Amino acid sequence: MADIKYYDVILKPVVTEKSMELMGEKKYTFLVHPQATKSQVKEAVEKMFEGTKVAGVNTMNCEGKKRRVRGTMQFGKTAKTKKAIVQLTEDSADIEIFEGL
Question: Smallest Cα–Cα separation from 86: which of 77, 94, 78?
């Protein structure tokens, strides 16, 4: 288990059509540190956003995509990422960074 502080766990929110639809169900999607665990993600969301209570966390590891380098037939890969979908409880406050999107 990595020694990661709660403010280093969440890297940025994921803003896509699918993640916006999930917000109606109080599910929010974030890119998180690749070594973060579900309990660390839960702790980070509850500490960073006032009034939120996390019901559950689903995580997924995403492999890097294959990309061409400089127009030749050489290939490289983009960085691996980790996504977390955080389900809030019914009585929880909404996360403000997604308001107005």
Answer: 94
- What separation in angstroms does the CA of 15 have from each of 4, 19, 92, 97? 24, 6, 21, 11
* 44 sits in which H/E element: helix 38-48
Report the domain count for the chain: 1
Q: What is the CATH number of the domain that holds 72?
A: 3.30.70.330
pLDDT at 2: 64
Task: Let me know if residue 21 belongs to a domain.
Answer: yes
Q: What is the pLDDT of residue 73?
A: 82
Q: Which domain holds residue 34?
A: 6-90
pLDDT for the residue 30: 96
Q: Which residues of the chain have pLDDT under 70?
A: 1-2, 98-101
